[in-house]
Amino acid sequence: MLISMPRAEATTSFTYTVTSTGDMNDTNLKDGACTGTCTLRTAIEQANANCSVDPTVSTTIKFDIPGSGVQTITPVDVTNAGDQSHLAPLPGISCPVVIDGWSQGGDGYRGPPLVELNGSVAAQHFGASGLGFGGNDNGSTVDGLVINRWKGSGIEATGRGGSTSVAAFTFIGNYIGTDPTGTIAEPNTDDGITIGTIGRATIGGTSAADRNLLSGNGKRGVFFQGPNTGGASVVQGNFIGTDATGTSAIPNGMSGVELQGNAGSTIGGTAAGAGNLISGNGDQGIAIGGQNVGSMTIQGNRIGTAADGTSALGNTHSGIELVDKATKDRIGGTSAAAANTIAFNGRAGVTIGNGNGHRIVGNSIHDNGGLAIDITSCGTDACGGVSTNDSGDGDFGPNGWQNFPVITSVKNADGQTTVTGTLDSTPNKKFTIDLYASAQCDDSGYGEGQRYLGATTVTTSGAKSFSFTVAKVSQQQISATATDGAGDTSEMSACVKSPK
Question: What is the value of pTM for the model shown?
Answer without folding.
Answer: 0.94
